[in-house]
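S.,

As promised, the magnesium ion run. Input:
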Amino acid sequence: MIKATSIYKCYDNLEVLKDVNLHIKKGEVIAIVGPSGSGKTTLLQILGTLDKPSNPEKHTLEINGMSLNKISDKELSKFRNQNIGFIFQFHQLLPEFTALENVCIPAFIAKKNKNEVENKALELLERLGLSDRIHHKPNALSGGEQQRVAVARAMINDPAVIFADEPSGNLDSNAAKRLHELFLELREELGQTFVIVTHNKDLAQMADRTLIMKDGYLLNEK
Ligand code: ADP
Ligand code: MG
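Predicted complex:
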């Protein structure tokens, strides 16, 4: 599902990622842990094609069978929209749109049929326990609800993988637990692949594998 080799990233003289290699299968839930500043967000942004490694010629990145290091930015945007979902620490929902509208936007960008998109968004929101929140705007939702809307938005285009960067970092422990259980349910029900950066020990423990970011390398948990 995801294969990355020799990912290198530096900012000026700071080498953040020295040689990151990673292989993730479909339906795996992977946790990435590591100290603050160790490069977890940088890695997730690169895997999610939002940022590029500093060694364009020498790395490889393949997601869902598509080799991504040599395609144009336009093709990359299209690929990202259709194959990758993102969940951030702060939900990053658009404040002036309702929950339903926020969920639909990535599918409208993909030029899908309006009615089909709305029906699917409604199904997803119902599946995530948000049926009575669909017309609320983000600031009228709790933190846990906002994150579940973000999950629905991440899933609207049936992505090959969802990348989540500290998704429960801003939630109380109950809402965090509920969100983590949701990830596992979506994996069981739909075979959804997740790569999750987290400081939450419970979440890391629930994952199939935990990888540790340290000194520019991604190591398997001992
Ligand atoms: P983490 O998510 O593990 O806390 P980050 O990937 O955000 O770590 O950052 C890793 C290192 O790279 C940090 O030292 C950070 O200051 C630096 N860094 C991140 N983004 C930039 C940037 N755009 N410009 C310069 N330095 C950056
Ligand atoms: Mg980070």
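The CA atoms of residues 78 and 110 lie 8 Å apart. The chain has a mean pLDDT of 95.

- D.
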